[in-house]
Amino acid sequence: MRNHHLPLTAVMVGLTSLVAVNLGSSQSAQAASEFLCPETHAATTNAALQETPEQLASTTNALKSPERENAIRVVAGDLKKEYPNADTADIVNYMLTAYCPLVAAKGGLGADEKQAEMDRFSSQVYRILKE
Question: Is 14 contained in some domain?
């Protein structure tokens, strides 16, 4: 059951990240229907925080924890300290980029199910950031 008190922005952040990757791809229409993860950004922009492969891998590993909610809080707190001017959407997008490989690696799930998992994660991160 969705929490109807969360702004639609939380869900849209996740959808926008993954849709942008699909639309920007030069792959065939069949490949566009596959589950794809957002690309990393080399520098901080209006839409993304700086992401080194090492930082992203560290965040991905942290999100593997069975205590994922606590890991989200720790990572989000660190990001807020490192990027004090980052808005919530920037942090959510960074976290989605780090979480996506974990979802992509899940066997037995179709692209729609993986997208639904990303949407749930986006909502969870957004909720935690707004606490």
Answer: no
Who contacts 93 (Cβ-Cβ below 8 Å, separation ≥6)?
13, 17, 38, 47, 48, 49
Range of the domain at 59: 45-131
Q: How many domains does the chain have?
A: 1
pLDDT per residue, tens digit, the chain (131 aa), is 334 343 434 444 444 444 444 434 444 344 446 888 877 655 555 556 777 888 889 999 999 989 999 999 999 999 999 888 889 998 999 999 999 999 999 989 999 999 999 999 999 999 999 98
27, 82, 114, 123 from 85: Cα distances, Å: 35, 9, 31, 21
Residue whose tokens read 């037995």: 108
Residues 125/89, Cβ–Cβ less than 8 Å:
no
Instruction: Report if residue 131 sits inside a domain.
Output: yes
Query: How far apart are alpha carbons 111 and 19 in whole angstroms?
Result: 12
